[in-house]
Request: fold
Amino acid sequence: MQYLNAFLLGGFLCAIGQILIDKTKLTPARILVAYVVAGVLLTAVGAYKPLVDWGGAGATVPLTGFGYALAQGVEKAVKTDGWLGVFTGGMTATAGGVTAAVILAFLAALLSRSGEKA
Reply:
């Protein structure tokens, strides 16, 4: 059942993004930023944790999950470090994912050929 829940929630989030691309003049970059901000805002009001509990990876893998991780990191850091945690918590919580993305992008650049597309 967990796999089905993850598929349904992840698919729903992706479908919303596709509808925004097709039906609005928003650029994909703005939609991506909106997803991260939505994840932060939904976490701040307590609405994203139930989605994570129900949908698992369907909630944490999309960009809304990145916003959720940022908000969770800030919340934890503020509890332990005070106001300094506002500036350090988000990056501490997401450092592993950001590092993996940079390393994998570098490897992809090394392994692929650059040039003009026909």
The radius of gyration is 17 Å. The helical segments are 2-23, 28-44, 48-55, 57-60, 63-81, 85-111.
